Amino acid sequence: MDGRKLPDVSEDLLLIDRFLEAMAAEAGAARNTLLAYRTDLEGASALLEGALAQADRAALAKLGEAWASLARSTVARKGAALRRFFGFLAEEGLRADDPSAALPKGTVRRPLPRILGHGEVDRLFGVLTARTGEGASPADLRLAALVELLYGSGLRATELVSLPRAAIRPGQPFLILKGKGGRERLAPISDRALAAVEAWRAYVPSGQPWLFPSGKSHLSRVRLYQMIRALGAEAGIPPDRISPHVLRHAFATHLLEGGADLRALQTMLGHADIATTQIYTHVDSRKLIDLVNERHPLAERPIGKA
User: Fold this and answer.
1) Given 78, 84, 201, 271, which residue is catalytic?
2) Is there a catalytic annotation at residue 245?
3) Catalytic pick from 84, 142, 201, 248?
4) Considering 63, 70, 92, 272, which has the largest number of Cβ atoms within 10 A of its Cβ?
5) 29-51 pLDDT, tens digit each
């Protein structure tokens, strides 16, 4: 023995469980997807002797070497699972860095995230409006505040459910959040969201530390997902097409479609790398082509004859 402390295998397994719970709650991942992720993550943990969660770039490069004989599509799948896992660890503040750039990329492209159309968002808020009129229940007021902050401010599910009661104040159009790696960012709070939060906060005792309390702690991400999915069903949106994460993505995509600057979106979403924002705020190719045809300086000039 060289005196080094051996990794705690149970820590890897615990963090894998937490990651898969978040995948189910926030992204609505299917059971087969979760099983595949578990297999790939536990397999990688075994190859690294229980040190996956604390692996550095050199360790992940060795994983790539161990996968050398596998099909490229399999390598891509395993790499995608680990990238999401390390992204989760960084987002939760469990790691200060993300070493996943050292993983082989394979040939499978990262899928574009799901998004709600403007009509679906209108239906969603139509249901909320009907439920938050005169005599609205505290549960409906809480739901309205949650949805306004997801779609109107682009908060992550974890950031939202763990907000302190005093985090949002009347007349303060922004919120200071601590995101990945302990980095702070400003999130915009719309007038609608401020009003919805104030209506709900009237039912939260002044001595309560959380804005969205539940039992001895705050609302869980799993419960948030269940509430959003139930609201979506009432608005005619299939359960597999809506989640807190989908509403965050809709916030960014609809702002981008409306002409928002990509760098501003990067700041609001808390992305360290603008490449993440470019993927997260997908604009379909037809709209990009229309933009070039309508806005490019040459768009109005006649095509010369040869």
Assistant:
1) 271
2) yes
3) 248
4) 63
5) 778 888 989 999 999 999 988 88
* Contact (Cβ atoms closer than 8 angstroms) between residue 252 and residue 278: no
Q: pTM above 0.70?
A: no
Residue 249 among the catalytic residues: no
Question: How many domains does the structure of the chain reveal?
Answer: 2
Residue 261: domain span = 118-287
Active site residue 83: no
Residues 75 and 185 occupy one common structural domain: no
Pair (95, 134) in one structural domain: no
Reported as type and span, the H/E element at residue 217 is strand 217-218
How far apart are the C-alpha atoms of 240 and 218, rounded to whole Å?
25
Residues 223 and 263 in one domain: yes
Helix (H, G, I), strand (E, B) or coil at 175: strand
| Catalytically annotated residue among 142, 180, 229, 249 | 180
Our answer to whether residue 180 is catalytic in this structure is yes
- The CATH number of residue 220's host domain is 1.10.443.10
Quickly count: other Cβ atoms within 10 Å of residue 238's Cβ.
9
Active site includes 156? yes
